[in-house]
Design a protein that fits this description.
The structure holds four protein chains of four kinds. Chain A has one domain: Cytochrome-c3 Hydrogenase, chain B (Orthogonal Bundle), CATH 1.10.645. Chain A starts with 24 loop residues before the first strand and ends with a helix. In chain A, 46% of the residues lie in helices and 14% in strands. Chain C is α/β, with parallel strands linked by helices. Chain C has a domain of 148 residues: Beta Polymerase, domain 2. In chain C, the strands form two sheets. In chain C, strands 2-3-4-7-6-5 form a six-stranded mixed sheet. In chain C, strands 8-9 form a two-stranded parallel ribbon. Chain D is mainly alpha-helical. In chain D, helix 9 packs antiparallel against helix 15. The relative contact order of chain D is 0.11. Classes of the chains: A alpha+beta, B mainly alpha, C alpha/beta, D mainly alpha. Chains in contact: A-C, A-D, B-D. At the B-D interface, helix 2 and helix 3 of B face helix 5 and helix 6 of D.
Chain lengths: 384, 169, 231, 452
């Protein structure tokens, strides 16, 4: 089983040597049941006092074999499962999967469906970032932002609920388009939310952005350089906070993103504070996208004519979208039957979490929770 | 007066008893706890002598300050080794002999000076403003000694910082 | 600030890249969508009507079958590695280069340094149990400089090991462990090849096609309880 | 009436006070928790406890019952004796400290002539409960919490002590009663004389009671619950009680030293109701309580359940009862009036101080350990030293040169302000340095990667 132990130490997470402890060193197991490992992440820390000498992430506590399940379901049957991976951003997961299968089929959703998808995906990005903001602030000891964030997230979840009846694991989209037409006041709801939301973001920023303690806790903590980030396959806000201006919505537009004006927020220091600023700025941009999109939703069909039984011709496809946490990719291999031969999910959190080891070097215990929070992981997605 | 005597013997027994326990405990944290008890009992005796200032300083400095640092350091050290260490090794015979000689000396001294041995009358007039009295004494009669002591402490502190820094590097 | 793969810069139209929307995007408020497939434009014609779906009907136009790919990139790789580059195809506008499993590390290094595929987006495998060399190991690369994707693929037999690319992209560490965990593919030179998602004492590799949880369960019951499983 | 007080005050009165404090404190702590939860909830756009009793009024009782009935778990490898004893130390010393705290001129167990030092000394012993509890649990989280706590308390005691010294210099006494008397005599609360002394004490007292943003010993997101991680049930409740008892102690200390203790605001305003000896301002407490009672009565019919209606009405009746006591005291002797009204004002000020604690707790993120230490040693302690020296100079100016007391303290405040500004500038220099070194570190890491 343990074949292939090569030379140790390529810089990413490898097992901690627990046999040789220096003077005053202790091994601390954070998790899998710990208030701020966001689910069931287990972090093994080797501490010198409160300083981290070495760290190792141990994952898999939430492994459900989603990729194996996919091989025993038809294409549409598997769609609800993807919602359960990044369960705080189910809409984005669904979007990625549906578009990947559409690509495999050689079909494309009609314009109306694509715009609605864009709106919902952006709302989901805001919701996901809000949940991140709240829990991240809570980890750093600010008790209040989470309740403000939850208040706004609730509005988004209400829109989801009105649209498709579910709040968390929405299964909002279908392969080929949408199952449901938008409800009567959809545009008004989205618009009202977006208009109120600008001021709400200001509220969060009042509490945190220029707070000395917040700056002290996040600036210079968990620094990840641009080169490291790319080498580690880190994507999303974490990558952009390291100074790489790269966003799949701009680089390889999908859904209807090529229609809208928005900016990609980038920061240069790659520390926890910059990741915070990038996500805050992203929420503002998402809000702008929603406002633009909801102004002008094209009329027309919501479903492409793809047939009821989906039998993609043999072949394979990789399709990725910019999820709230980074590049969310689906690699699907078809053997021409109604069931996918292989579905591989490229979860952004999995790759981003890999960078933790590098960020945590020399940090203190308190920084560890700040760093984990700033990576914004969802274990459902890391473990699948 | 009965109450005062009862209190005195209570504090005295507590002090001596926990001091004895302190040196016989194998667990170093337990020993520290008993040392704290000794210090507090001594503080109680100070209070009985109406030396309120000393009473408070005893608690504040020794029990509340120095012993906290003791415990802090003890917790950092690996305790298992201390617990397993043999307390009474081959030197105990020599130590016993020395202790016996010392005890004899003390007893002789007590016997010789037994005529002068009596408890001092409890102070009464002084008590009301003894904090001021301490301050006055410190800053007038013993000014030089006080300053020398403070310089000594300063030197010790700087020395500790320098040594600590060097080891960190 | 590193500016990479920004949509503002027109990417070159080499094969092996994602479809770029046409130039009119963002120009006006009128929504014009790129129409790369006929299916979609037909859907647009039937705009007002709700979607009419015929049961069992196949998509109107099947995506083009995988075709051979022969562009400068493949040429350069062929020049350099010769036979190690087996077959290059393009499937659904995505470039796939099949390579010799033994030389993957060098090829990866060349891709990273000379061809500017800085990022290993994903590393995975596919199991084809009936094939002689049953596994496809797949490396998904992305070039931020060129905004282009490339998929390397190698056929690997059971028990055969693949060179690890952790020295090329440090981020390959966990995906390789996952691959080892779920497929049992051994990556030579990996710093710490252990199971990652499953517990250390797990038997078998679940993503193999011949992995059968029911069979395992029956065996376990027989071994540990001494009875025939009722399943 | 007057004679009664004097005869009682000899020995029965202190014992009575002690019994009342020991009995009432858990209840008071429970209700402070309720208030804290309600305040927190309203700051966070939600309602807080609403189910047990109207507006959660019976929640503390339910919580206390739950805690007492819970299983008392002792970890297997714990040091049982110390594990058992540690929470008791915490609570005991917290309660002992009350013996010197004057809650109004009449309610004080013992007027020590070193009262202030006594309270500081005894509360400094509370650390043993925390440290020993953390150590005896035999858990890494507990140990980390205990070590953080020890280092934090020792550091902040210095700053708090120095801040108190500035008041001592002004009052010229260590007795709590005399400090209040000095404020009455000088006609001004000391917070106006030494605002920086108050500021330093405020920060240090939050740190000493382990409350956010200095709640590192029990930082839930980092070390689970710090020294309390392995405690449950009643023992845990004891720690909780000790924490809130300490909060009340530091609030009481701050009130006495900086806010004139039991003195009512505008002590020098002495207008009477025509024809009586009752001062106009002394009616304010009664009116406040009546207003509160009216509020309760208005809320009572709106409660959904009958029990809740009754409890709410009972709360209203209680307020009326307090109002009656306050009113009756007006017609009593001076000692009675001052005793009752003094206690009222004292508790109001303590409440305001505790409210500040809560407000900070919900507004600020938590400090990191090194930042916490730096704040104490590199900011508060130098500041407090400058402040103390300044106050000394001011007293010389006042007594030898006959300056106006306010004018003489202006240079002190300005000097401390200047020092604070300078230290803050230093600190931001420092953090910029740290930032640049972090960038260099990142670059090195990149370079290293190339070599791998």
């Amino acid at each position: 089983m343990n074949a292939g132990h090569g030379a140790a130490g390529f810089g990413t997470a490898h097992g901690i040597d627990t046999t040789v402890l220096g003077e005053n060193e202790i091994i601390l197991n954070m998790g899998p049941q710990h208030p701020s490992t966001h689910g069931v992440l287990r972090v093994k820390l080797r501490l010198d006092g409160e300083r981290v000498v070495d760290s190792e992430c141990i994952i898999g506590y939430l492994h459900r074999g989603v990729e194996k399940i996919a091989e025993h379901r038809s294409y549409p049957q598997f769609a609800p499962y993807v919602d359960r991976m990044d369960y705080v951003a189910a809409v984005s997961n669904g979007l990625g999967y549906c578009e990947a299968v559409e690509k495999l089929l050689g079909a494309e959703a009609p314009p109306r469906a694509r715009v609605v998808r864009t709106i919902l995906a952006e709302l989901q990005r805001i919701a996901s970032h809000l949940l991140w903001l709240g829990t991240h602030a809570l980890d750093i000891g600010a008790l209040t932002p989470i309740f403000y964030a939850m208040r706004e997230r609730e509005e988004i979840l209400k829109i989801f609920e009105k649209y498709c009846g579910a709040r968390l694991t929405t299964h909002a989209f279908r392969i080929g388009g949408l199952q449901y037409e938008t409800y009567d006041t959809f545009e008004r709801d989205v618009k009202r939310f977006c208009e109120d939301f600008a001021q709400k973001i200001d509220q969060y920023e009042t509490l945190l952005t220029e707070n000395r303690i917040w700056i002290g806790r996040t600036k210079g903590v968990g620094v990840l350089s641009a080169d490291d980030a790319i080498a580690l396959g880190v994507t999303g806000p974490v990558l952009r906070a390291s100074g790489v201006e790269w966003d799949l919505r701009k680089a390889q537009p999908y859904a209807a993103y090529d229609r809208y004006q928005f900016e990609v927020p980038v920061r240069e220091n790659g520390d926890t504070y910059d990741r915070y600023l990038v996500r805050i700025a992203e929420m503002r941009q998402s809000r702008l996208i929603c406002l633009q999109a909801v102004e002008d939703i094209p009329e027309g069909a919501i479903m492409a004519r793809i047939g009821k039984v989906l039998k993609p011709p043999p072949g394979e496809v990789y399709h990725s979208i910019e999820g709230p946490k980074g590049e969310l990719g689906y690699y699907i291999v078809s053997d021409g039957t109604i069931q996918p031969y292989r579905v591989r999910v490229r979860p952004p959190s999995f790759f981003n979490l890999q960078a933790f080891h590098r960020m945590a070097r020399g940090a203190m215990v308190a920084d560890v929770v700040a760093i984990i929070g700033s990576i914004d992981i969802v274990l459902g997605e890391v473990d699948r | 007066m009965v109450l005062a005597n009862v209190l005195f013997y209570f504090f005295a027994l507590l002090a001596v008893g926990s001091a004895a326990l302190m040196i016989t405990r194998k667990n170093i944290v337990h020993a520290a706890v008993f040392l704290v008890t000794t210090l507090l009992a001594t503080a109680g005796i100070f209070l009985q002598l109406e030396a309120e200032f000393l009473f408070v300083v005893q608690i504040l400095v020794y029990a509340g300050g120095i012993m906290v640092l003791f415990v802090f350091v003890i917790m950092l050290v690996n305790l298992d080794i201390e617990v397993r260490a043999v307390r009474f090794n081959g030197q105990w015979k020599v130590a016993g002999a020395l202790a016996f000689v010392l005890a004899m000396q003390v007893l002789t001294a007590l016997w010789l000076g037994r005529k002068t041995f009596h408890l001092p009358a409890p102070p009464t007039a002084l008590a009301a403003r003894n904090t001021e009295a301490v301050a006055d004494a410190l800053f007038s009669h013993f000014m030089l000694a006080f300053e020398v002591a403070s310089i000594l402490l300063l030197v010790a502190m700087i020395g500790a910082v320098v040594m600590g820094k060097r080891r960190a590097e | 600030m590193v500016k990479r793969g920004n949509g503002e810069e027109p990417p070159d139209k080499r094969p092996g890249e994602e479809i770029e929307p046409d130039a009119s995007r963002g120009a006006s408020n009128v929504l014009k969508f790129p129409t790369p497939h006929k299916v979609e434009s037909e859907a647009a014609v039937e705009a007002a009507k709700p979607a009419r779906r015929v049961p069992g009907s196949a998509p109107r136009e099947a995506p083009p079958a995988p075709a051979l790919l022969d562009n400068e990139l493949v040429q350069r790789l062929r020049d350099r590695f010769g036979d190690a580059i087996r077959e290059a195809t393009i499937d659904r506008k995505q470039a796939i280069v099949q390579v010799d499993a033994g030389r993957v590390r060098e090829i990866a290094l060349a891709c990273r340094d000379d061809e500017k595929f800085e990022m290993l987006v994903d590393l995975t495998a596919v199991d084809w149990p009936k094939r002689e060399r049953r596994f496809d190991v797949v490396w998904n690369l992305y070039s931020m400089t060129k905004n282009e994707r490339l998929r390397l693929k190698a056929h690997v037999a059971q028990g055969e090991s693949v060179p690890s690319v952790t020295s090329v992209w440090v981020g390959a560490n966990w995906p390789e462990r996952e691959c080892f965990d779920l497929f049992g593919i051994v990556f030579e030179g990996h710093p710490d090849l252990r199971r990652i998602l499953l517990p250390e004492e797990w038997h078998g590799h679940p993503l193999r096609k011949d992995y059968d949880i029911l069979k395992q369960d029956t065996e376990w019951v027989r071994e540990n309880l001494g009875i025939e499983s009722g399943q | 009436m007057h004679g009664f007080f004097q005869s009682v005050s000899a020995i029965i009165w202190p014992v009575l006070c002690a019994v009342v404090i020991v009995l009432l404190l858990p209840l008071l702590a429970g209700y402070i928790v309720l208030v804290e939860r309600k305040v927190m909830a309203h700051m966070q756009a939600r309602l807080g406890p609403m189910r047990v009793g109207p507006h959660g009024l019976l929640q503390p009782i339910a919580d206390a019952l739950k805690l007492v009935l819970k299983e008392d778990v002792i970890p297997m490898n714990a040091d049982r004796m110390i594990f058992w004893f540690a929470p008791v130390i915490s609570v005991t010393v917290a309660l002992v400290a009350y013996s010197a705290l004057p809650i109004g001129p009449a309610f004080q167990i013992a007027d020590l002539n070193v009262g202030l030092l006594f309270i500081v000394a005894v509360s400094s012993l509370g650390i043993y409960g925390v440290v020993l509890g953390g150590w005896s649990s035999n858990s890494h989280y507990s140990l980390l919490g205990a070590m953080r706590s020890a280092a934090q308390l020792v550091s902040y005691e210095v700053a708090a002590g120095l801040a108190l010294v500035s008041v001592l210099l002004l009052a010229g006494s260590l007795s709590m009663k005399e400090i209040v008397q000095a404020q009455l005599d000088q006609g001004v609360w000391f917070v106006f004389y030494v605002p920086f002394g108050f500021f330093i004490y405020l920060v240090a007292s939050i740190a000493e009671t382990n409350r956010a943003p200095f709640d590192l010993p029990e930082a839930d997101s980092e070390i689970v619950a710090g020294y309390m991680t392995e405690y449950s049930g009643f023992r845990w409740a004891l720690y909780f009680l000790a924490e809130y008892a300490n909060v009340i102690i530091v609030a009481g200390l701050a009130t006495t030293l900086f806010f004139g203790g039991w003195l009512r605001p505008l002590t020098r305003y002495h207008d009477h109701f025509p024809g009586t000896s009752i001062e106009l301002l002394d009616v304010v407490p009664t009116l406040l309580m009546i207003a509160l009672a009216v509020y309760c009565f208005r809320l009572a019919p709106k409660q959904p359940v009958r029990v809740q209606k009754r409890v709410m009405a009972a709360a209203g009746v209680k307020c009326l009862l307090f109002a009656a006591i306050l009113l009756a005291a007006l017609f009593g002797s001076d000692a009675v009036r001052q005793g009752v009204h003094g206690a009222f004002w004292f508790l109001v000020k303590v409440g305001a101080y505790i409210y500040c604690f809560m407000w900070f707790r919900f507004s600020f993120p938590r400090y990191r350990f090194d930042q916490l230490m730096r704040l104490s040693w590199q900011f508060l302690i130098p500041l407090a030293l400058v402040n103390v020296i300044g106050v000394g100079v001011a007293i010389v100016l006042r007594e030898r040169l006959g300056w106006n007391p306010f004018m003489s303290l202006v240079p002190t405040t300005l000097a401390t302000l200047g020092c604070a500004a300078w230290l803050t500038a230093e600190e931001s220099d420092f953090s910029e340095e740290a930032e640049s070194s972090a960038t260099v570190g990142g670059a090195e890491a990149t370079a290293n990667r190339g070599g791998e």
